[in-house]
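Why show two proteins at once? Because comparison is the fastest way to build intuition. When a single record is shown, students tend to memorize it. When two are placed side by side, the eye starts asking what differs. So, the first record is below.
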Amino acid sequence: MPGYLGRTKGWIATLMVISLTSCSEESTSPVVDTIAPAAISDLIITDSLGTAITLTWTASGDDNQTGTGAEYDLRQAMWPITEVNWNEADQVAGVPAPEVAGTIQQMTVTGLALGTRYHFAVHVGDEAGNWSSVSNAVAASPYPEAGFGFLVATRDGIFAVDVDASFEFFISGGREVEVKGDRVYTRGISEYDLDGMLVRRIPVPDDIPGYINFAALPGDRFALMSHSLDSIYFIDDAGNRLADLGILEAPDNSLQNLDGIVVGDAFIISDDGNNHLLRVDLNTYEMSVFRDLSNLSGWLGAIAYRHGYYYICQAQKIYRFQESGHLELIAELGPDLYNITAIVVAGGHSFVTLNFAGAIYRVNDATGQVTSFLEGLDYPTDLELIWR
């Protein structure tokens, strides 16, 4: 037995030496990092007023969504950025270093040209040279902090409002206002220049019944929208009838809202009383259903279009969608902010008038944040973007 135990101890000692040697060899071998950071998936534009655009995103990690990455490669271009055309995009300088995964980060890109549409995307790299795939791509056009503003129609008249919320009287009268190029139109139809000087009056045929809203169309044409008769009447600037369209087979005696915008050669109308957006071809005056939103409870109202997105409002909600995309809720206003009557989209924000609140509110389209822009208005009913 003693001899057996002695041999066993020697065998065990040999194993320990081998094991320690093996561990020592493994500990000196380099560990290869092959795990790339996760791609940024929530890159958004949170502001674009002035000659700058602010980008916000959530940091991913060194290894997928864990740890801290080493660097960002942010690119900008005049076209949508993908992996295929990545090297053709311009690298943005001054990008902050990544922070720990899950941290909200932000950067403002400056020195941009007003009114020019910029596209952005980002890669994340780690210390081992692994790079994530490209992030989601975003785009926006910076708008000047001065030089543009709004016309808002109220019971007290139409006021010109700057982006700093200062305002001055523009013209008297007019519950609805339209801006087309360098001309302003009010219900009636009266045409003004940008200084508020009357240019001419457009005759409206006597046999066209009362209308709730109107729109200025290409080719010196106008669309007069009647919710009591569920009809739209098209006239030229001499008052000639061009077409009459019924938005329903027969009036249903329901007084829905009616609003319309021009997109290309089409006139998009909200709505037919059944939560359908309609499309009128302005070459043929043929009408079709553009978007079925009957899944939404409550009426539809103000509508706008900007950079490929359609914006549609309900009393307290703002949605947007691309022509072939899903409907996205941008924001739901507070309980005391009721009845959106008009919407204008500029600088990454939606500006909406609320007649019962007597105010204009500003909504960040990326975050949904709602802030007061201008209060103390007497029943604002319409809003238009204007360059001054």
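Second record. Ask yourself what differs from the first in the token line.
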Amino acid sequence: METTITVPAESAAAAPAVPAGLQVTVRVPATSANLGPGYDSLGLALSLHDTLTVETLAGGGLEFELSGEGAETLPRDANHLVVRAITEALHRLGFRHEGLRITAENVNPHGRGLGSSASAVVAAVTAANALVPEVSRRGKDWILQLTSEMEGHPDNVAPAIFGGLALSWQDSDQYSSTCATVARSVIPVVAVPDFELSTEAARALLPASVGHHAAAMNSGRAALLIHALTQDPQFLLAGTEDYLHQSYRAEAMRPSADLIAALRRAGHAAVVSGAGPTVLVLANGEAEARTIVDFIGSFTAANTPEVGWRVMKLAVDLEGAKVEVHRR
């Protein structure tokens, strides 16, 4: 869910332009939010990375090279989320650009619940921050605030910025996040179906309120999940039980919901990744990860042959958004 990104023309024109000939490359991880009961608050960075290179041009214009996921459908003009986010971030920093050459190499599937829009805005804002003079640059907490405003919530942008397991919260219009270290034995496995589901459509299925009992049950599982992820992964199955959102979204992603139910019956900590329809499974060790990959292959072949599934055994990304190149 994105907020409108608009820069007043008069204030943009009055700002100094960043010099031409600067180049920045940002590598940013995919993310999985919610992790079951951690609705809009927990997020995990995954070892699946998009790469964005931004170069400032003299004399105006926009050159946009896009490859990988979304290459056939995403715009290559000023309407692209990356261009809008760079322009807005520079404006917040007191600058503008005269022209941009952008190269985006997308690996993160779009519309699947792996934080593709969050990755895009984090990469764009991080790049913009690196393009301005060093004295004008801001820290990662500023990047968190701006990207959370753009996305509407911090659960995906926080792990994309900081890496690892991010615990995020909101006070009025202020967004905050802290990170926890994930136990080494935790291995994320994702099953990505060949159909999309927008975050807006998934959120529209949720009720306006839930009962006190469900909220209390969910709070207990969210607390247990943090312990399981950081200290004792034997509790991952119990800790990923959700009472707030997954059941309401099931009909919009029936193949994913059926796969999650089957995995959980078999004792594996399966959840909806973000708003779906990707399935995330948190394995405790390599042996369980291999078992999960085999189980997904067998179950989907027998039960959802009409759906194409991409199954990936990943790792937890510990670095978050990383500026790889910054030269004049």
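One difference worth noting in the second protein: The domain at 186-313 is CATH 3.30.70.890 (Alpha-Beta Plaits).
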